Fold these 2 entries.
Entry 1:
Amino acid sequence: MLVQKQTNSDGVYEILRNQILNLKYKPGYPLSALYIAEQFNISRFPAREALLKLAKNYYVDIFPQYGTRVALINLDKIAEEHFLRISLESAAVQDFIRFHHEKDFTMMELFIERQKEAAKNGHTVQFLEFDNSFHKVIFSAIQKPRLWNLMLNFNSNEYRYRLLSLSIMPALMQSVITSHTQLLNAIVSLNTMLAITSCEKHLADFDENLNKLITSFPEIFTKNGAAYPRLPKHTEGYPLNFRDYIIKKKII
Amino acid sequence: MSTVTEKHQRRNNSQEIYNILKERILNLIYKPGYPLSAASISKEFQISRSPAREALLTLASNSLVDIFPQIGTIVSLINLDKVSEERFLRISLEKRAIHEFIKEFNESTIVTMEKMITLQKTAIEENNIVNLLFWDDSFHRELFTSINKPDCWKLLNEFNSNEYRLRLMALSTVSKTMKVIVESHETFLRALKEKNEITALNTSYEHLTRISGEIATLAAKYPEIFTCNGAKVLKKQKDLSSFPDNYLFQLQKEFQKDNL
């Protein structure tokens, strides 16, 4: 009996997590157990369980009087997520250069090609999926898959920020492809210094848009210790799909 | 259907029980491999099966226990491949933290870290290994706090269940390592103060990999508590008498006896 309930709320958790990451819900959106129960046709209890798990992993914030909100994009946490990523990736890349297989390079080339296709078709979410796959090859090759999973669960702010950036400036996808190509070339030529520099540069691919985004959507960003902004309390104040909304709005 | 208050209490209960069990597992009160059932947890803490099972599930999701379908739940063995991964994370993060710290730090952080070394010395005098590890961890945490990366530290602290227990084993069963910890920290802090990044990095690396040499000895002496990825699953340990009430205490007693 308990196992069945777990499956329900776990499945719903995964779907909601993906929807939050892929910006279906605008950061700050009021996400209630009632809404989840209705959307997924489940009872209140597993809906609440799913919400609690989302809160535990920082995808939503629970405010006792205010309700539950999809987490705002926290700029301080982006810095922490970058710190983790660059620390792990520079170390991983060094080991990868020492212990690699030809087939790993082939895989990485393949994912870059997939990214090129996704960029041509303007499919930003797919683009980021192939981006993840590209980086994952490195961690699988050095047999540290747990560390990759760790990074995946510790990037909810920077992932959404990257998706936001790509959605208003699709041309950025080209910069990412260039960075990946440079990184792969450095690795293939076994040039550790160049590989590490490429990693650092890659991390800065999305820096230029930050101010523009903060100006256009101040209400979706926050920092540690900042006061919570006044947000529409009801779902009518929010678009049905935030990502579609910002693409149509054409900020640039 | 229970009331909102009861459900709230149950959640609190399960969280508290989780914290207590986590501490017992990390501090080797429970010997790795010890069979931990929802029934025994219910009985000991006088709670119903549901929160007991919830606590066990949370422990499993944090790799502190392993749930085997036919066998039951056991306290996770110390997995040497996972130690390798945990160490990789620690070394990579600390390397970058040192780099950021040296770029700009303030004196008050150095003072705090000096205080922690003093507290480590006290712990050694009192022969309190758990306290020593606490102040050791606090020393390293200070590094991350001062560069405004507290979440990275929290991550490190939660992703170390194998490495932490290995350190505890090493300290409890091999005599020379305690003083070396303090000396390493002092050298490390001096290097940071003098902005000597290379010495700081080398000291940090040595410090974090110090017990590598002792792993083989430990695995030979206590084979039943270690494992690695892909190792064969154990048979069910029905005989609870092979598990002491406090494994760490037993280890320390044996060690003192061996060294008389």
Entry 2:
Amino acid sequence: MSTRTLLTRPKRYFLVRHYLAELALKLRSGTDTSLRKSHLATSRQHHARFLRLLDSYNALSKPDAALLESLNDSPDTFSAAGPSAAGDPSRRRDAKIARFRQEKELKQRIEALRRDAASAERADDATVRELHLAVVAQAVHTAFQSLEGVAQELQILKLAPPPAQQQQQGAASGVDARERDRNGGVGGAGYSERVDPPLAQLLAGGRAGPLLSKDGKPLRPFTLLDSRQRLQQGVFRPDHNLPTMTIDEYLEEEKRRGGIIEGGGEQSGVKKELDEDDEKAVDAETLRQRQWDEFVEENPKGSGNTINRG
Amino acid sequence: MEETDQSLKEIFLDAEAARAELENSWDTNTAVYQQSLEAAVSAYEKCLVIIDKASLFSSNEALDDVSTNDLP
């Protein structure tokens, strides 16, 4: 050890693993969940070793060291708020707030220190040291948060359904053996031992897939219907009844039916002239008038259906 | 040891430069971004290898023992 310190000036690149952990999360994985999972695992490993290294240098605070232990105990349920706060959302929130405040203070301290270190001609050794330590402390914060995020994402990926088709151009780890059997050999053209059609087809209820094979042989039972045409025609129609005739045509029709009265014409002006010599006509007319008078007497004005108002 | 020290420093600085480039770009899906990403990752990994070979870290040390110049 002593010869080394004489000959060399070793620099401890503590943050290398931290950067590797963060960069691993940025790697592109597209829709390939297994690739994403491996990136997440790599990131977690790097961060774990980063933190362990700092711990071996006694650089972690006591709570942080305890947090690291909880990571080792159960990495999949890791939370930056601590293991006891895992199920308690209010404690988690408080822990998050405290952590956020710590981070803010750290960030401000780092900025201040950077300014001091840059401004002084020969930066104070203590200042520079503080700056480096503060940067490391910030990295520790980020590390724990990343680890929590990684644990959560892995949980979600575990619950995600396996992708229906992994069409990767050579980048994927090859088609799963089960998928191969399911598809029946190379690209689905081969033999499959399954008797039933796949679940998706069963659920479609006989509506899925082609009707006829390439030769024209029917692949599924089907019926010839015409109601489909009618249904189809019923789709694109105006939503109200369109007019079928013009107004003039309508009036003509009404006239034909006798619905149009032409009042004030000849017939309303003409009165029948009573021949006074014709006894029967005169008597009939007198009788008629008497009957009318009697009717008027019996039905005084205002005695009709007053609808409860009179 | 001196050579590894020097080359380690260079590789580390390359990695840091690549990483700074990544921090400044906003579009993470471009091929350029992914290339810089992979460059940074491989540079850092090379650093790890050198650090491991040079046994820069020792389990007997504490952070207080490390001098300021040796910290970063």
